[in-house]
Design the sequence.
């Protein structure tokens, strides 16, 4: 939500009955807390033995207490201390609970589970009983009560924060930050917590009312504020014995607790209707790794794109696995390929074929609890699997750029676009904030975003879809990446914007000599943009061929079926669109032999028992098939033909 829309939302919320009541009550409570201790201190503390326990009168609107002091004045004066203690306890509970709830996103899997179990245990314990237990430990009085109530409320904040933080931690922009090598605590404070700030602020607002009630209870029981100081709970304690003589002395502080609690609860309701609370933590000092930054400002171990004739990326035997009750499930199995500098390589296949997981395995972004390993995984000659974690993140953060499918999820909605681009320079190049922002503006200009200085100060939701995708590409180009992984970069964009995005990828490939792995469902785009195409099916590469051969010279039946399924202007509109019958294989129960044989019209007994390996094909590439296309005259059955199905 933009700042203007946010202000408009607040104005609209305050015009509702709940919002208006919240505003009026909070203003009144705040004024009383500020003015009453100054204006009424004398009346509240003046002892009058001649007016002990007097009822309501013109001189004492709510009567007097056991020492003849004015009950109304004391109730109003007690507002400041009651609010101060409740706000302080809420702040302690919020900070402690949020930190505890965010810990699982910072710690490893086992430690995170331990923290989650501790949170669940603490939430199961009644809050007021926990506060009484803690106040005995910390000691009676204001200080002990503040700590007790604050820590007793922390489990509820932790329980609320944990799932919110976990959901944000799986976002693409958090994955991008991990890829940059951003430390876990910085990811939590800069990327995770700002995006859960809105519901936490609402919960904290409502919690103030609960803290007021908790303080009143502790003071009433004698654990809280001690005489001669007094809050509403302590007044309840002293007024209750005389409730039948002067009920106002006991009811007045109780009514004050209710009014203040309702005010904060109403405000929480109004805040819940407003979207777009922003928390941008500008005070965070960027972490600079002295061991990863050379004196010239370039990260040590940055991949060299121009390394003599070696592939930019070498993948040998990449496998991605996920645990299951029946054993490991491997949606990507034994994938091998190389990418050369200055070359765009397409990766195509149906949904679920393993394309995105292959890219995630290369970048170390396989979602938990999945794991990825390979016999060899080299980026510009650097074997990534043999590096310490910190060094590997530094190499990936500078040598690899990722363009995600959804640019909105790839950009943190709680941070300005320029600040997100600048993070690369701050983390990996040791730049100052000013220098990194200057470079970010330059990169926004390089990806053809108009008025880059102004746009750098805006939030992602103020950008159009095409601008967001270009900004993501600009983020990837903040360094000098040797490899760009583009996962469906044109999804959801109109044709004109698609062309702009693809032109930027082509330009990066040409100008920077970067290798680009373009993952796409659009066969025609891949055929025109890429020099080489990898075709995946069932988690394996089934064909590797030059792009010029994709439309007319593919050797694998599945590749030919993919091409046949793409409509063109010459297609007969009276006929149904070509499809690939059947369903892709289930990674948890893959078929024996060739994974495509249940859908292939050319399959025989051998296809069902023996898995083919990649072998040279007539197209000039490699194909894994027992019945490849042997020549230009050998045609596979057309899409939609009778029999077992179309080659696909």
Sequence:
């Amino acid at each position: 939500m933009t700042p203007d829309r946010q202000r408009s939302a607040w104005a609209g919320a305050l015009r509702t009955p709940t919002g208006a009541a919240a505003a009026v009550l909070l203003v009144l409570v705040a004024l009383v807390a500020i003015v009453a201790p100054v204006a009424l201190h004398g009346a509240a503390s003046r002892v009058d033995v001649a007016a002990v326990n007097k009822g309501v009168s013109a001189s004492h609107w709510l009567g007097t207490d056991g020492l003849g002091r004015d009950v109304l004045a004391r109730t109003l004066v007690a507002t400041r201390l009651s609010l101060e203690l409740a706000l302080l306890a809420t702040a302690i509970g919020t900070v402690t609970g949020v930190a505890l709830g965010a810990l699982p996103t910072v710690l490893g899997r086992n430690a995170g589970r331990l923290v989650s179990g501790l949170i669940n245990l603490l939430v199961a314990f009644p809050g007021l009983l926990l506060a009484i237990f803690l106040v005995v430990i910390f000691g009676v009085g204001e200080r002990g009560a503040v700590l007790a109530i604050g820590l007793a409320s922390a489990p509820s904040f932790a329980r609320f924060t944990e799932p919110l933080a976990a959901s944000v931690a799986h976002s693409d922009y958090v994955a991008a930050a991990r890829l940059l090598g951003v430390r876990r605590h910085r990811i939590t404070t800069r990327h995770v917590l700002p995006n859960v700030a809105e519901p936490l602020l609402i919960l904290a607002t409502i919690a103030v009312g609960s803290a007021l009630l908790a303080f009143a209870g502790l003071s009433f029981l004698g654990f809280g504020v001690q005489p001669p100081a007094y809050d509403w709970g302590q007044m309840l304690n002293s007024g209750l014995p005389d409730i039948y003589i002067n009920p106002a002395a006991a009811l007045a502080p109780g009514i004050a607790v209710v009014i203040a609690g309702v005010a904060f609860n109403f405000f929480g309701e109004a805040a819940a209707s407003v979207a777009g609370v922003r928390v941008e933590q500008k005070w965070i000092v960027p972490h600079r790794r002295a061991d990863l930054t050379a004196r010239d400002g370039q990260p040590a171990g940055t991949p060299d794109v121009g390394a003599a004739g070696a592939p930019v990326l070498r993948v040998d035997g990449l496998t991605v696995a996920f645990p299951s009750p029946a054993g490991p499930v491997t949606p990507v199995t034994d994938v091998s390929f190389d990418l050369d500098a200055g070359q765009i390589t397409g990766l195509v296949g149906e949904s679920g074929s393993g394309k995105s997981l292959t890219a995630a395995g290369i970048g170390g972004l396989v979602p938990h609890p999945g794991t990825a390993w390979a016999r060899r995984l080299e980026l510009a000659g650097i074997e990534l699997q043999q590096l310490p974690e910190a060094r590997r993140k530094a190499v990936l953060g500078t040598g690899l750029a990722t363009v995600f499918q959804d640019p909105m999820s790839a950009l943190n909605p709680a941070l300005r676009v320029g600040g997100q681009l600048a993070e690369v320079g701050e983390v990996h190049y040791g730049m100052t904030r000013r220098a990194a922002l200057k470079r970010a503006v330059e990169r926004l200009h390089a990806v053809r975003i108009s008025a880059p200085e102004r746009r750098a100060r805006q939030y992602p939701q103020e950008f159009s879809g095409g601008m967001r995708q270009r900004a993501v590409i600009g983020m990837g180009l903040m360094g000098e990446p040797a490899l760009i992984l583009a996962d469906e970069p044109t999804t959801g964009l109109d044709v004109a914007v698609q062309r702009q995005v693809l032109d930027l990828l082509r330009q990066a490939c040409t100008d920077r000599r970067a290798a680009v792995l373009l993952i796409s469902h659009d066969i025609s785009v891949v055929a025109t943009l890429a020099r080489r195409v990898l075709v995946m099916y069932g988690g394996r590469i089934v064909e590797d061929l030059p792009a010029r051969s994709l439309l007319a010279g593919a050797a694998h039946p599945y590749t030919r079926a993919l091409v046949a399924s793409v409509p063109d202007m010459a297609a007969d509109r009276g006929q149904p669109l070509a499809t690939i019958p059947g369903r892709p294989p289930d990674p948890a129960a893959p078929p024996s032999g060739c994974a495509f044989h249940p859908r292939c019209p050319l399959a025989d007994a051998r296809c069902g028992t023996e898995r083919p390996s990649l072998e040279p094909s007539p197209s000039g590439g490699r194909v894994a098939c027992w019945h490849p296309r042997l020549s230009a005259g050998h045609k596979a059955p057309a899409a939609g033909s009778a029999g077992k199905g179309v080659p696909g």
About this structure: Residues 549-648 form one domain. Residues 71-106 form the longest helix (36 residues). DSSP finds 22 helices and 13 strands in the chain.
